[in-house]
Design a protein that fits this description.
ABC transporter involved in vitamin B12 uptake, BtuC; 14 helices
Length: 327
C-alpha cells in the first residue's frame, strides 16, 4: 500500500467518524469514541508488538501514566491537559525505553519479556491502588475547567469523538511512517531473526528500546484523551490488564505487523461485543460472551495471520502464481 492509499484510508476514517456523529444515537457515538481509542492504542501496541516483535503485556502501564500525569497536573497545578498530554507522552516513552533497556541488560527472551511487562504493570497498578496522594482505589475526579477547550473538556460527545479520531489518525500516521522507513525495516528484521539482524549491523536491543518508547508515548496520549472523556481516573480502568488484553486481541484479529490490521480488528469486534451485550446480555447472562468468544476463535482459525495479513498473503500468492504461469 502506497502513501496515497494510506492517506485515502485515513481520510475515510475521518469521514466515517463525522458521519457517525451526525446520524447515530448518543450511545453509539460513545461506542464509536471507544472504537477509535482502542484502535489507536492497538495501533500503538502494534508498533512494538507487531513491527519489532517486542510483545508487551503491560500497555496499561503507559495508558495509566498518561492519564494520571495529565489529571494530577491539572487538578493540583492547574496545568492544561494539552501540556499534560505532552508530558505524559514523554513519561510513557521513558517508561517504555526503560523496560526494554532493562530486559536487554538482563538478557531475557521474548516470553520472559512479556511476563516482565505484565509484572511491572501489575506492580504499578497495586502501588497506585494503595497510594493515597493519587486517590488510591477511589481514583481522582477531574476539576471542572473554566475554559472547555483549554481544559480539554467538552459538553458534546461529537467533540470527544473528533478528539479521539484525531488520536487514531496520529497513531496511524506514526505507524505508517515507521513501517515505511528504514527504522521499520530494522524493526521487522529484528522481529524475524534477531541474530541475522545483528549479523548485518542492526542492534536488536536499540531497536526494541526505540519501538517500545514510540509505542509507550502514543499509548500515554490515548490515556489522556480517555481520561478527559471520563473526567475521572482510577487504577483499575487505566492501569489494569483489561486495556492490554483488548488491544492485543484487536491487533491479533486484524493482523499484527500490518499498519491497518489493529484498526480493522477494533472497528469490527468492539461494536460487535457491544451489540451482543445489548441484545443478549440481559436475557441470557453469559450468552453474549460465549458468542463473542466463538466468533473470535472462528476468525483466528479462518485468518491465521489476522484478517489483513491473511488476505494480503493470499493476494500476493495469487499474483505470484499468475506471474509464474505467464512466464
Amino acid at each position: 500500500m502506497g502513501a496515497a492509499h494510506h492517506l485515502a484510508l485515513t481520510a475515510i476514517v475521518i469521514g466515517l467518524a463525522a458521519i457517525t456523529a451526525l446520524f447515530l444515537e448518543t450511545y453509539w457515538v460513545d461506542v464509536a469514541f471507544l472504537v477509535v481509542i482502542y484502535a489507536g492504542v492497538a495501533s500503538a501496541w502494534n508498533v512494538a508488538g507487531g513491527f519489532s516483535g517486542t510483545f508487551s503485556f503491560g500497555h496499561g502501564l503507559f495508558f495509566g501514566v498518561g492519564a494520571y500525569t495529565a489529571a494530577v497536573l491539572f487538578n493540583d497545578w492547574g496545568i492544561t491537559p494539552w501540556i499534560g498530554l505532552v508530558i505524559g507522552a514523554v513519561l510513557g516513552a521513558g517508561a517504555g525505553a526503560f523496560i526494554a533497556w532493562l530486559a536487554s541488560r538482563c538478557g531475557i527472551g521474548d516470553l520472559a519479556f512479556a511476563v516482565l511487562t505484565l509484572a511491572i504493570a501489575e506492580i504499578v497498578y497495586l502501588f497506585v491502588d494503595n497510594f493515597e496522594p493519587l486517590g488510591a482505589s477511589r481514583g481522582i475526579s477531574l476539576n471542572p475547567a473554566t475554559n472547555g477547550a483549554l481544559g480539554m473538556q467538552f459538553s458534546s460527545e461529537t467533540t470527544y469523538l473528533a478528539m479521539g479520531t484525531g488520536f487514531l489518525v496520529l497513531c496511524q500516521i506514526v505507524a505508517w511512517l515507521v513501517y515505511r522507513s528504514a527504522m521499520g525495516y530494522r524493526f521487522r528484521a529484528v522481529r524475524e531473526n534477531p541474530l541475522a539482524a545483528e549479523a548485518i549491523g542492526i542492534n536488536p536491543s536499540r531497536e526494541r528500546i526505540l519501538a517500545l518508547a514510540i509505542s509507550g508515548a502514543l499509548t500515554a496520549v490515548g490515556g489522556v484523551v480517555y481520561a478527559q472523556y471520563l473526567l475521572f481516573v482510577n487504577p483499575l480502568t487505566f492501569f489494569g490488564p483489561a486495556i492490554t488484553i483488548k488491544v492485543i486481541l484487536f491487533a491479533l484479529i486484524g493482523g499484527m505487523g500490518t499498519p491497518w490490521g489493529p484498526v480493522l480488528g477494533a472497528a469490527l469486534f468492539f461494536p460487535l461485543g457491544e451489540w451482543l451485550r445489548a441484545h443478549f446480555g440481559g436475557q441470557l447472562p453469559g450468552f453474549d460472551t460465549l458468542i463473542y468468544g466463538l466468533l473470535v476463535i472462528v476468525t483466528v482459525l479462518v485468518f491465521p495471520k489476522g484478517i489483513v495479513g491473511t488476505i494480503t498473503r493470499r493476494l500476493n500468492n495469487s499474483e505470484k502464481r499468475q506471474a509464474e504461469s505467464k512466464s
